Structures
1.
Amino acid sequence: MASKRFIEMVEPLLTLMPTVPRPNRPVTLGSRLIWTFLAATVYLLLSVTPLYGIVASSSSPLFNPLVAIIFASTNGTLAQLGIGPIIIAGIIMELVAFSELMDVDLNDPKDQARFTALTKLVAVIIAMFEGAFIMSTHQLTVANAGLAFIVWLQMLFGAVIVILLDDLISKGWGIGSGISLFILISIIRSIFQSTFMPVTVGAGELLGIIPALVAAVYSAAVSHTLAPLLSIVYRFNLPGLIGLIATIVLGGFIAYVELMEVRIPLSFVQYGGYKMSYPFKVMYVSVLPIIFTAYTVALIYNGLYFIWTTYNPHNANALLNSIACIRVITTAKFGTINEPCPSSLIYYFTVVPYNITPQYVVVHILMYVVLSVVFAYLWVNLAGLSAEDQARTMVSSGLSIPGFRASARSLAVHLKRYVNSLTFTSGLLAGFIAALGDVLGVYGTGIGLILMVEIIIQYYTIAMQEQLFEAYPGLKRILGVE
């Protein structure tokens, strides 16, 4: 009841939160596609509009490409925070709701509106603190100190616009969710740039692999050597041929696994024991555990980097060197870069170091697999996906196991072996694919590839469902879909 009183206390503040009204009548599929396109266009404009007052060439060692992909953020633009505040606020509020720390009935329209408004408020607060953290840790270089507050305000403004765009799509004006849409745009843009972008970076190297391949073929023909072709097979921090092949192969494998299902035989009690099969995806919890994994690895790296910059900036302490050691090396193609020492712990939390050792590959993959499996089990038990939760849902829907008593307890015992196996398998596969993709230089990162395939499948399913509902409107009433 205390949580109820808390919501009532902050309700005047919740009414000030900007919101998008729900449509008064059902929106056609064509109109929803237009609104989705407009939301995507606004997000793209945010992601290419630079923040006023920062040094354009500035970059930070704390910038993590994995986190940028997951949060659909673009460094140095109005989309600096991306969807990070929305995701973090959503996870916090979902955990609070499922753990019953908040006395709220999500089936009650009034409570649901309050809960949604409170989630937005939490997202705005997170955006304020995240923007302040970015400025205080100098992840953006400001032209002068007087512009720091203006840069912070711009980041907050961009975050609020993204929150409203997500609200627009989620309220039924668009298709799917804004979070999925912006992540998909971010990943596709990254893959497109890695494949086709004809701009030069570093020591005059072409960014896109296709332009680089054309240039390498020409150079090989002129010089009559294979050196130009071999130089683009694997390029540090740049798209290579191995990355292109790995993107295609892993993308196909992810799509295959995402569509795999395990069907459990059940029966309808109220229809005289009518038998059916209930599908469980093999990738039972593929996205959120690997998001938690990437974020955890990034946080640990940032923590170790903080130790180095604060207590061991000159690598003078042998004990601290084993924890965090950053050295400056000079390369022919990239000039001077900060490289973690292979003998230090921070080396294994780097996304992809310049010097990759066999030990790094093994530890990196094992670390991702273990963390992903652990987070998979945690999420299943916290988010209402456990065998007990599934059993209660099935029993309330009139489902039971043929030959067993129709009770949630007996069904949970039967489901436990399936849910536990699928949780472990999905966590293991997601962690392995993500880590292997990083090592092989997959375009858009391994985690991004998993997210992209799953979101595309999700959008395809939604589009097919919407077409079916438009052709047969009575199905919505039969299935209880609003």
2.
Amino acid sequence: MSFVSSIKSNPKLKKLVHWMLIPPGQSRPRLWVRLILNRFFHERGKGSVVRRNARMDLFPFNKFALGAKSIVEDFAVINNGVGDVFIGEGSGVGISTVIIGPVKIGNFSMTAQHVVISGLNHGYQDVSIPPRHQKVTTKQITIDDNVWIGANCVVTAGVTIGKHSVIGAGSVVTRDIPPYSVAVGNPAKVIKQYNFTTQTWEKA
């Protein structure tokens, strides 16, 4: 049995370790976790940049990787507390963007400002318990290479956005977007796709 498995299988030990990592009632790791512990668990590619005012709510029990020459801008929030977060090479996380795992972003993709990409949902089914205290569910979000997501978009849990697609500003993506597409609206719908035969973007 691994060290992590032994902790998870012992409720008292798990509670103690959780308290050591996370202040009660919060979703942000303790300062010593952010400054010391995470250095041994997460990957940062050469030339990658995390701006000073970005909030990196990262935990050692899930994975995080930031590819070479990628950038996380000021006031962005990245949280891997409920799922791994992977960001490829040459990608950009825009100002005030929020990413909650499980999320995988490919190479040379970018978000504009105030984008929310969340693989997390709170339960709400039991009306005797506030949603805040119900179990969470997660579904993997995958954003392929060369994707551009416009300002104020929301990408919901379980969605895949295909390669070289564009999501128009203010859109809410609730279903998969095929590669080489332009999608807009709430819920987002494909309005253009690239035709490799004619080498033009055509109305869908």
3.
Amino acid sequence: MARAPENRRQALVKLAWVGIWLIYLGAPVDDLVHGHHAVAVTVVAALGLAAFVVAYLALVFLRTNTGERPERWVYGILAAQTALSLVLSAALGKNWLVLFVYVAVACGAALPAKESRWAVPAVTALLAAVGAWQDTGADLYPALLIPSLLGGFAMVGVKQLVRTMRELREARETVAHLAATEERLRLARDLHDLLGHSLSLITLKSELAGRMLPDRPQDAAQQVADIEKVSRQALVDVREAVSGYRRPTLAAELAAARGALASAGIAARLPAAERPAGLGSQGEGALAWALREAVTNVVRHSGAATCVVALRVEDGLATLTVSDDGRGPVADQRSGNGLTGLTERLILAGGTLDTGRSGDGGFRLTATVPADPAPVGADRRGGGG
């Protein structure tokens, strides 16, 4: 309705729908056939009626339902329709008053709401004036006033409904696109964090196995066994990440961090491997990802001899701090993909990420998330993910 068809099928459906309402032009057609007018008058009137119908169809098919101001030809067609209605009804009688109803409907369909609000009543008022003059018996034109008003304003409402439905459809497509984008970002973050940690550990253990192989084959075999174990776990983690069920726990990540730091020859001071009281599963998952990323960076880049992990919950906030005594942050160094993804994770959990130089001159990472005491019991009963 009030929208240009986009293909032949839509054009045929719209023509059939509009054609149903053209049946009300039966009164003018009957007057042409049985009105006993002169031949010249009948021919001119028939041409005028044909021009009126063509103009009406042009508005219905070509005027799109947009919030933009109508083109000049729209106003020209409406003015021509009004003039034809006035001339034909004034010259040929009350049977032609129905043309004003079509003009009112066309105004409602083709004009913006602000303009149609006065255009429809104006056309109806013109119908009332001409009808009072032509239909002295007052048996026809009063019955056309209500259809003129209702038809015109109904088109305004239908046009607004169509516009709203179109906006809702576009909004739904936008939401679907955003959801797909967020899922791609989630998968990219998970794979980066999972594989970065696992591959770093595999690299370390491979180097250890290579150094042990000539003189300590049994120790080298143990490192190879650890490599196989890490590889299998990485495969499981990737499958869970792709399926959307991956949520690490602090206990698992602390155990993994202890092993990774030991393999790298870095002395570690870690808290107890349990979830602190007052920390929900979502916050635990975010801090677990932060711990994994921080330890991976310590192992790969820091050159540190000691790594300290602290975890506390106070004042409604859970804070994880990972610091080392290595090289420390480099001036003007941009954050890598890992820290960027970690920042996004913490933001989704309502938390923040802060990095800087530690007290020992190394690197410090601090992740903070809101603590939620209410669901702790439920989280402990339901597991950490």
